[in-house]
Design goal:
It contains one helix and 29 strands. The protein is mostly beta strands and 348 residues long.
């Protein structure tokens, strides 16, 4: 036994100096006297306090001069630590000059896992815009009260002759729309120019996809988005972008919903009785249920002796979604409850 590292105390305790992960293991203690002997086993786990970046920044980040240099750039990393507080810094190095960007960044930590001792964090660092028009290295440093770790990515500003494979940012997503409405499938095609963008629709009369051309119904925008006018039915679409460095594609579905008339399915009662001494100076609440697939506007009025009074300025209302659904030949949608409160009803 290393006398400098271990100390056996007179009461039987064991002291270990400068503990490290290599000291983890099962220890056995034996005691004896003239009357007998006893043993016990103790498991010792020495935890590492090191903060470690387990998912680093990509080796290379490509920025396109016309698209990215005046836009935010998002860096992601994954960190494990025994602590929940750590410091973050970001810097840019180019041609031997270091620029500290920490005061410009916004970051967010999200806990994604935790075992008995270690927390795993997803770290998102947003740089409002690249501070240099030239290539260089972005260094992300993370530290807690014990130590730290670093990761970096090499920034490449695309130039003529530098080929960047095509990609979508944002990726096009499936959409739902009312029958007869116009719809925009939003995306941006990025990569080295020239970029070729083609949209296709899955044919209903013939198998396979048919290429879409700009006409009165479809418009393919310069950034790769697709506009469709007067959508009448569901459709499956496919967008492909390509350049000299490669090709990528995405599938998109457009779903249609039948617009339906707003209907009051539970009207107000024909008569509402008020007791003079009890109700005339209290709020009165009235309830109705409606069906609709759109936003709702409300108004309330009172007619008395041929005179109409608008009460919209006095009412408060609440619209709540129910769990009920309506479904008929005209369409489908949700049923909503409406509660109206009219304060201080007067004697008239």
């Amino acid at each position: 036994m290393d006398d400098a590292k271990y100390t056996l105390h007179s009461n039987g305790s064991l002291g270990i100096s400068d503990s490290e992960t290599a000291d983890s293991g099962v220890y056995k203690v034996a005691i004896s006297n003239p009357h007998g002997a006893a043993t016990e086993e103790i498991k010792l786990e020495v935890l590492s306090t090191d903060l470690i970046i387990i998912k680093h920044l990509p080796e290379e980040t490509v920025l396109m001069p016309r698209n990215d240099l005046n836009m935010s750039i998002l860096f992601n990393a994954t960190v494990t630590s025994m602590e929940k507080d750590f410091t973050i810094s970001l810097g840019h190095s180019s041609r031997g000059i270091y620029e500290d960007l920490t005061e410009h960044i916004v970051y967010e930590m999200t806990k994604i896992d935790r075992n008995d001792h270690v927390i795993t964090w997803k770290l998102d660092v947003l740089l409002p815009y690249p501070h240099s028009q030239s290539s260089g290295d972005i260094t992300l440093s993370v530290g807690d009260s014990h130590n730290g770790d670093i990761t970096f990515t090499h920034i490449v500003v695309g130039e003529d002759g530098y080929n960047v494979a095509p990609f979508f940012d944002p990726v096009p997503k499936s959409v739902a729309t009312f029958i007869g409405d116009n719809v925009l499938i939003d995306t941006k095609a990025k990569g080295s120019t020239p970029l070729m963008v083609k949209w296709y629709i899955l044919g209903t009369d013939s198998p396979g996809f048919t290429e879409i051309e700009n006409d009165g119904k479809y418009e393919i925008h310069s950034n790769g988005s697709l506009s469709i006018k007067n959508v009448l039915k569901d459709g499956n679409y496919w967008v492909v972008i390509s350049n000299s460095a490669g090709t990528t594609s995405e599938d998109v579905k457009v779903s249609t919903v039948q617009r339906t008339d707003l209907v009051i399915v539970k009207p107000l009662p024909l008569k509402t009785y008020l007791i003079p001494e009890k109700d005339l100076h209290l709020s009165i609440s009235v309830n109705a249920s409606i069906t609709s697939t759109e936003d709702i506007t409300l108004s309330l009025g009172r007619s008395l002796r041929g005179v109409y009074e608008d009460l919209n300025d006095y009412i408060t209302f609440n619209i709540s979604e129910t769990t009920e659904q309506f479904n008929n030949v005209e369409g489908s949608g949700k049923i909503w409850n409406i509660s109206l409160a009219i304060p201080d009803i007067d004697a008239d």
